[in-house]
Design goal:
Blueprint lengths: L2 H26 L4 E5 L6 H15 L3 E4 L7 H4 L4 E5 L3 E2 L26 E2 L3 H12 L3 E5 L10 H7 L1 E5 L4 E7 L13 E5 L3 E4 L6 E6 L12 E10 L2 E6 L5 H4 L2 H14 L4
Parallel strand pairs: 1-2, 1-3, 3-6, 6-13
Antiparallel strand pairs: 4-5, 7-10, 8-9, 8-11, 11-12, 12-13
Length: 271
């Protein structure tokens, strides 16, 4: 091999090495999401099935946990996006099951008292708040607004709190802000779901979705309409809440499924 060919070979090898190093750096910088999921009324299996499809289509790896007690600054520092679809309750004395109340009669043993307790601490709420302030994304889904009832810090960053909901029934989700990157091109849609009524604490300009029962059915004294989604910057990060999500059927309504993907991208500052 002559010296010229040898130099070309070495330059090629060096270039390949640089490309490989650049590819490795790109892979290291790839965003990653963490999802805290599952509670008495929301099986983590259906949630994972729903979210796997969303995150697969946006190309973002996601890790799942049901270990609410391990939510911390140290855990969140490994991620770019934190998603939560679970409520604020735990049941230390046990329960029969979310859909097994009619089995309570005729059992050999007494049914334990089904009394809930809150799981989140103010330190955990502060960890989520600081994560977003530093630039992280926070996607609060469905009944996660319930956690805000137990933590001032969590509510401050999440933006609102749970009021209640009727049983599954059809309602319309209306796009309140068609100019937001998350909702651009998304049409109003019907869904058969729990219509969650929530209190919203922030500027009304950040509301992106509203829900309404078109049959005129009200929920207690809260009427038939509610805020159903918002998105806003918080510190260096971003926050999104969307209320639909009790079943896969609801999560996969085409317009809502597309909206979830766009929410993830917006939270990661990809749109």
């Amino acid at each position: 091999m002559n010296s010229l060919s040898r130099r070309r070979l070495l330059r090629g090898a060096a270039g390949a090495g640089l490309l490989g190093h650049a590819a490795a750096q790109t892979a290291q910088k790839r965003p990653r999401a963490l999802a805290l999921i599952g509670d008495r009324y929301h099986n983590p299996d259906y949630i994972r099935v729903s979210l796997d499809r969303v995150f697969r289509e946006v190309g973002i790896p996601i890790d799942y946990t049901i270990l609410y007690d391990q939510l911390s600054r140290d855990l969140l520092k490994n991620y770019d996006l934190f998603l939560c679809l679970r409520d604020g309750m735990i049941w230390p004395n046990g329960y029969l099951g979310p859909d097994a109340y009619h089995y309570a009669q005729g059992l050999e043993n007494d049914v334990p008292e089904t009394k809930p307790e809150s799981w989140i601490t103010e330190e955990q709420g502060a960890a989520v708040k600081e994560f977003v302030m530093a630039g992280g994304g926070f996607y609060s889904l469905h009944n996660n607004s319930h956690v805000s009832l137990s933590s001032k810090n969590y509510r401050e960053v999440m933006g609102g709190a749970y009021i209640g909901h009727p049983e599954l029934r059809p309602f319309q989700v209306r796009v309140a802000n068609k100019e937001h990157p998350i909702t651009q091109g998304i049409q109003d849609f019907m869904v058969n779901d729990e219509q969650h009524f929530v209190a919203y604490d922030k500027d009304p300009k950040h509301v992106i979705l509203e829900s309404e029962n078109l049959d005129g059915l009200e929920f207690e004294n809260h009427g038939r309409k509610s805020v159903a989604g918002w998105a806003y910057p918080y510190g260096k990060g971003r926050v999104v809440f969307t209320a639909v999500g009790h079943t896969n059927h609801a999560m996969w309504v085409p317009a809502y499924f597309e909206l979830q993907k766009r929410a993830v991208k917006w939270l990661l500052k990809q749109i």
